Amino acid sequence: MQETAPISQQPPARTAHNPDPFQPQYRIQALERAASILGAFTADEPELRLSDLAERLGLHKATTHRFLVNLEHLGFVERAPRSGKYRLGWRLFELGGLVSQRLDLWDEALPFLEGLVRDTGETGHLAVLEAGQVVYIERVETRRALRLPAAARRGHPAHATNLGKVLLAHASPDVVDGILLSGELPAFTHNTITSVDQLRIELASIKERGYSVDNEEYDEGLRCIGAPVRDSSGRVVAAIGIGGPVTRITPARIEDLARVVIAAAHGLSLRLGAGHAPAWASSDAHSRDASQFA
Questions:
Q1: What is the pTM of this model?
Q2: Which of 65, 134, 145, 247 is the most buried (most CB within 10 A)?
Q3: What phi-psi label fits residue 107: left (phi over 0), alpha (psi between -120 and 50 degrees) or beta?
Q4: Structural domains in the chain plus CATH codes
Q5: Which of 247, 257, 180 is nearest to 213 (CA)?
Q6: Are 244 and 123 in contact (CB under 8 A)?
Q7: How far is CA 81 from the centre of its chain?
């Protein structure tokens, strides 16, 4: 029996309007077959026999069995206790939850970003930590003059940015060590924190007071304020904040603006299911810490 995937499982033909992004040398047949097996399960047929899968995908039963053994070991499929048939595993549910979480974050964050811009007059940002860098996944621009440079969907160094420091302050020790000890902390301005010890002190302070300030550490003339966003488990999954020129975000305004940012972060966290939100920094803490940015 020849092992060829049926037409429905083959990739779409390349056309002038829909070019195939994959060159032949990059295609991995084993991955395509594994994906085909996972894609064979549907809402109407959530459980399938080995023979059903092999016949449907045009594969030998022995080949199909080898793939299923590996997929089961990785948690992507499992055997139903009663029927003995294969079905999708919990690992896919976990991964799907991550995608859903990110989509929920995008959907829920926009009104809070718009509210920040309306209430502060500065640009609003939402960011996540990815592979040691801060990725700005959403941005709402202020209409005022002297706006921030574009940053959406670009990676930035976590140690030198406002939202990056928020995310590092709440990351696991392993993640923080992996970033801080992987090499030098480059300076972008004369205010950039380049000492590992000093940065650890800064992160501890951010975690205690509930917000971060980028005091011209990445771009001269720009000051930013950010706070953590939590999901239903209480884990920090993103950071939200504002940024603008130091002529508008002055040390005297940091305390008041921080309250607005923290309130937005708190509200977004509740929308993501964080029913037991952490204690937010008190106004006294804001007053004590704002003086350092003068």
A1: 0.60
A2: 134
A3: alpha
A4: 7-88 (1.10.10.10), 100-293 (3.30.450.40)
A5: 257
A6: yes
A7: 36
